[in-house]
Amino acid sequence: MKYIAEIDGLEFPIEILDEHHVRFGQEIIEVDLAAVSGQPIYSLLVNGESYEGYVYPEEGFLQVLLMGQFYSVRVMDEREKRLRTAGAAVSPTGEFTLKAPMPGLVIAVPVEEGQQVEKGQILVILESMKMQNELRAPRAGKVSRLRVKAGESVEQKQPLLNIV
Prior knowledge:
The protein is mainly β. It has two domains: about 1-80, Glycoprotein, Type 4 Pilin (2-Layer Sandwich); about 85-164, CATH 2.40.50.100. Helix content is about 5%, strand content about 60%. The mean pLDDT is about 85.
């Protein structure tokens, strides 16, 4: 499984190869991670070197204390990263075009042209890799143009609808 780890604002690709091997960037490392029961303490072995870390869950990310240094860590799988990126950097004014973050099948379009929508409202339900993804409005506005309907297949980055 491939993931993107965002650590203090920097992104690192991570791929779990098996139970004890991880690709971190281009390097394959041997890891063993074990939680200390009932505590936020973890024992971590990396290529035979032992580390002790403390992990404190926060809303949407983790605070990790490792070797006396605090790190803010957010881990996303590739699908989640594409969905996040699809709504990133949205201007509060002007026209916004919702594009498919991945290829898939449009399951539903619960909005109509001319309809006012609120930030966070579901605009399109897209099925990809047998998972349904709810694509939501990144800001309030009015649906000015629908470009797809339920039952259509779409490609990654294909425009789905516009909001003004």
